[in-house]
Design a protein that fits this description.
The complex is a heterodimer of chains A (515) and B (349).
Chain A (H helix, E strand, L loop, with lengths): L8 E12 L2 E12 L3 E6 L5 H8 L7 E6 L2 E2 L5 H6 L2 E4 L11 H6 L12 H15 L14 H14 L4 E5 L7 H16 L3 E6 L2 H7 L2 E6 L2 E7 L5 H9 L16 E9 L12 E6 L2 E6 L6 H9 L6 E6 L2 E2 L5 H6 L2 E4 L3 H5 L6 H5 L10 E2 L2 E2 L1 H14 L16 H14 L4 E5 L7 H16 L3 E5 L3 H7 L2 E6 L2 E2 L3 E2 L5 H8 L4 H8 L1
Parallel strand pairs in A: 3-8, 3-9, 6-7, 7-8, 13-20, 13-21, 16-19, 19-20
Antiparallel strand pairs in A: 1-2, 1-4, 4-5, 9-10, 11-12, 11-14, 14-15, 17-18, 21-22, 21-23
Helix pairs in contact in A: 14-15
Chain B lengths: L1 E4 L5 H25 L4 H13 L2 H26 L7 H16 L7 H30 L3 H21 L33 H19 L1 H11 L1 H6 L4 H28 L10 H11 L4 H24 L6 H21 E4 L2
Antiparallel strand pairs in B: 1-2
Classes of the chains: A alpha/beta (515), B mainly alpha (349).
Chain lengths: 515, 349
């Protein structure tokens, strides 16, 4: 149902089908994109959104189906043909050369090889014009590596516009933005649409989809399961389409905060490589309370998570667990201090993909009884423990002896969650615990964390998803460039107010308070 | 053409593809025999006959397999932890060297005491040879492929120096060889009158022990975890450095035993041709066995059979003995391909 029935279709997809082995990532997907329209492609992780766009852009070849751009068939598997036909893509992970300037990044690949004099002056003028027209403020001579995430995204969009893209595909563009940056992005997109561009906006965030799109397409398990004009639909209906069943938002009862189980006072850590270190950070984690850590990706969340998980030690400051300063701080010491850890990267850090479920289930306790006795491994005890986790945490799997890489992200996460919770932790470190999970698994994991809180655990929830923090956290801190904001109690700050902190403002005042 | 991961390679894939690789190996070798102007089937027959066709041939193959089982195990243990030990050759010579230093009259002990002492010395020697590279790897990030490989040349020159100097046999008519081990230091034969010594039995026991270690012990679990995903292993609290050092000690010790078994079981003295590259061939043996310790026994027998059989065949037919090297090289390459194809399938487009 196009917003304007008179508008012509600039892009037609017909019966696009793509299989990866036994998995059908796209199943006979058909839709049209009209001129000046923003289509939101909504779906859970793994629903096939990115695959579909990669087919459109020529990164993948479809097993079946046709694509037509401006009335002409698009040859499959050819990104250059897609570019020339006017399709521009802004990837989830940016593709900029860090050591080149913004200008060079934008014209890279558009210059003929054999011409000596590059039309840099003309290119610069054109980029500046585009920046003004679309509200994409970025300095052409800045080095790409020095740009903020929001700026890098603007360069990516400029790249597409510079190549005369008439159709813009944005894959999860807001994942790395503060709420304010997201608003700026939407302003740019509205300007683009006003100039006749058509946009496909891929997301799994409902409120953004409702804010920017004129039409919503919902993908589930590779199939197009729903289509609606944005004006005619609501969050509830879309969620229902996405998941295929009713979802129940986690119910968060009031917290009963207890003693401080972990105390950090002016803790600093050394930055590793490009990563941000902690800068004189103070934090209390209380029993029976979920502390949410909000912030834009790459602002020291990893440094804090590594510290609590036992992977790094503080350079300076006080670090106390259960009222005592920590000694030799290692992952094993953290485990012995009853810290349950749900790492950010469940594929590479949380599990060993070629190990079985059993072997992964005891990864953090393999050397303790009953799993090991005097150096001998007790497979029976390991198997029993794994079966218990599979049952109690609803891990859908072929069995304890299956390799864990066969599991979906949600089931893998449930095993990690079970592994951590079965050790009855006093402190729980959950880093992006629901990222990439389907909504059913999200609810499950979140409810388990709430249960753990109610049972008296101190939970630190680190997430880049502000909605998740706002829903779950009893107390919220914002982290920016390794500094921590004061604690905000639940409901005392709006997303916009937190966004100001996320953008790094307000900390100077905080410093003078502390001084 | 692209590669696509296979979610769950069934038995047909995990066993069928390696079998296919061996078949392909034989086919290629036979084609070469044809090029050399011989009847391929006759050549194949001669190789098989030369390897297992008589009691003498069979014993020769078992003898040749013995050091290969040790070095194959040494490599398989290390590679499991992604510790790339290319220096089994040097570790073998160190084991042999210590056995010869202690076993040529220095310790006047009965066999029941002397043999275990020599064994332990050889294990310690081999283990120490790999300890240095393992420390450099874990402390400073020095690539152990380079250090272990280069130590092979250092060791061979060191042994050469000793055999021309302090260890030279005064009765050796000027040849660079050590004195002979005393009778108490010699490994007895398994059956009187046959040339097979107890080194072979020791090798089989080691294979079984390594298998038990890998599948039944906490250390085996740690080694596999570190080899498959060091990042996750460290996060889970596995002491990665300690595990790598322990692995190095086991691996080097096994290679050291190969040296002990060769001098105490077969040769009786140390010479520079004690090992015609057993340390390097151990890598092939381990890879063909997919790093499985029990598989190492099978693949060592196969590799030894190919060498012994090809030697005997080249005496009978006009095909050069190099066909053994070609056979093993092809077997290794096809096996690596087969391993990849068990985990990935090729799809068009």
């Amino acid at each position: 149902m196009p917003t304007d029935p008179g508008a012509r279709a600039v892009l037609r997809l017909r019966n696009i089908t793509k299989r990866f082995g036994p998995l059908t990532a796209n199943d006979a997907i058909t839709f049209d994109l009209h001129e000046g329209e923003v289509i939101a492609l909504l779906g859970e992780n793994g629903a096939g959104k990115t695959t579909l766009m990669n087919i459109l852009f020529g990164h993948y070849t479809a097993d079946a189906g046709d694509i037509e751009v401006f009335g002409h068939a698009l040859p499959p598997g050819n990104p250059r043909a897609a570019l020339e036909a006017g399709v521009g893509m802004v990837h989830q992970h940016f593709t900029l050369a860090d050591n080149l300037s913004v200008l060079d990044n934008i014209i890279l690949g558009t210059e003929p090889l054999w011409r000596l004099g590059t039309g840099r002056a003309a290119a610069r003028a054109r980029i500046e014009q585009l920046s003004r027209d679309f509200g994409l403020a970025v300095h052409p001579d800045a080095r790409a590596g020095a740009l903020s995430v929001g700026e890098r995204q603007r360069v990516e969009i400029l790249k597409a516009l510079y190549r005369d893209a008439r159709i813009l595909i944005l894959d999860e563009p807001t994942a790395v933005l503060t709420p304010q940056e997201t608003d700026d992005l939407f302003a740019t997109l509205r300007k683009a649409v006003a100039r006749g561009l058509s946009i496909i906006f891929i997301s799994h965030k409902m409120h953004e989809v409702l804010a920017i799109s004129s039409r919503v397409l919902v993908l589930r398990h590779g199939k197009l399961v729903g289509e609606a004009a944005t004006a005619d639909t609501d969050r509830h209906q879309l969620a229902h389409l996405m998941v295929g069943s009713e979802i129940v938002a986690p119910e968060v009862g009031g917290a009963a905060p207890g003693a401080v189980l972990m105390r950090l006072r002016e803790v600093s850590t050394t930055p590793v490589g490009n990563a941000v270190g902690l800068r004189s950070l103070s934090l209390d984690l209380r029993a029976g309370q979920i502390t949410g850590l909000a912030g834009v990706s790459g602002n020291g969340q990893a440094a804090l998570a590594d510290l609590i998980a036992g992977e790094t030690v503080p350079d300076s400051g006080v670090f106390e667990v259960a009222g005592e300063g920590v000694g030799a701080w290692t992952p094993r010491a953290a485990l012995d201090a009853r810290i349950g850890r749900i790492p950010e990267d469940r594929h590479r850090t949380g599990t060993i993909s070629d190990f079985t479920l059993s072997e992964n289930a005891v990864l953090e306790a393999y050397e303790k009884e009953p799993f090991s006795r005097r150096g001998w491994f007790d497979w029976t005890a390991v198997d029993r423990h794994t079966r218990a986790i599979i049952e109690r945490y609803d891990v859908r799997c072929p069995g304890p002896d299956a390799r864990i890489r066969l599991l979906s992200g949600g089931n893998m996460q449930k095993l990690i969650l079970g592994r951590a919770l079965e050790a009855e932790p006093k402190i729980i470190l959950a880093v992006q615990p629901v990222r990439g999970l389907d909504i059913g698994a999200v609810t499950y994991v979140q409810n388990r964390l709430i249960e753990a809180r109610d049972a008296g655990a101190a939970v630190l929830l680190i997430s880049e998803d502000l909605d998740e923090i706002l829903t779950l956290a009893d107390v919220i801190h914002v982290i920016s460039e390794g500094r921590l904001s004061p604690a905000f109690a639940r409901g005392t700050k709006t997303p916009a107010e937190l966004g100001v902190w996320m953008a790094g403002q307000g900390f100077d005042g905080e410093d003078s308070h502390a001084a | 053409m692209r590669l696509e991961p296979v979610a769950d390679p069934g038995w047909s894939r995990t066993l069928g593809l390696p079998a296919l690789a061996l078949g392909g190996t034989v086919a290629i070798a036979m084609a070469l025999a044809l090029v050399a102007g011989s009847n391929p089937l006759a050549v194949l027959g001669l190789i098989v006959k030369g390897a297992v066709g008589s009691k003498f041939a069979l014993l020769e193959t078992l003898n040749r397999a013995t050091p290969l089982i040790f070095t194959g195990l040494a490599v398989a243990v290390a590679f499991r932890a992604k510790l790339w030990n290319i220096g089994a050759e040097a570790q073998l010579y160190m084991g042999a060297l210590l056995a010869v230093v202690l076993g040529t009259g220095l310790l006047p002990l009965p066999a029941a005491l002397l043999l275990p002492i020599l064994m332990l010395a050889a294990i310690a020697g081999g283990a120490l040879m790999l300890l240095g590279p393992a420390f450099l790897k874990t402390r400073l990030g020095v690539d152990e492929v380079v250090t272990t490989l280069l130590l092979n040349f250092v060791m061979i020159l060191f042994v050469s120096m000793l055999l021309e100097g302090p260890l030279k046999d005064p009765m050796g008519m000027g040849w660079p060889k050590s004195e002979r081990l005393v009778a108490e230091a010699r490994l007895p034969r398994i059956v009187d009158g046959l040339r097979l010594h107890w080194g072979f039995g020791l090798a089989l026991i080691c294979a079984l022990l390594v298998w038990v270690m890998q599948t039944r012990t906490t250390l085996g679990y740690e080694i596999r975890a570190v080899g498959l995903n060091q990042r996750a292993a460290a996060f889970a609290g596995i002491p990665v450095t300690k595990v790598v050092i322990k692995t190095a000690l086991i691996s080097g010790g096994l290679a050291g035993l190969a040296g002990f078994s060769e001098v105490a079981g077969l040769k009786g003295s140390l010479t520079l041709d004690l090992s015609p590259g057993f340390g390097y061939t151990g890598i092939i043996v381990a890879m063909l066995a997919l790093l499985n310790p029990l598989g190492v026994v099978v693949s060592a027998l196969f590799v030894a059979g190919v060498f012994v059989g090809a030697d005997s065949m080249s005496r009978a037919a006009a095909v050069p003995t190099y066909i053994a090297d070609i056979l093993l090289a092809t077997a290794l390459l096809l096996m690596v391909l087969a391993i990849m194809l068990t985990r990935f399938r090729v799809v068009r487009g």
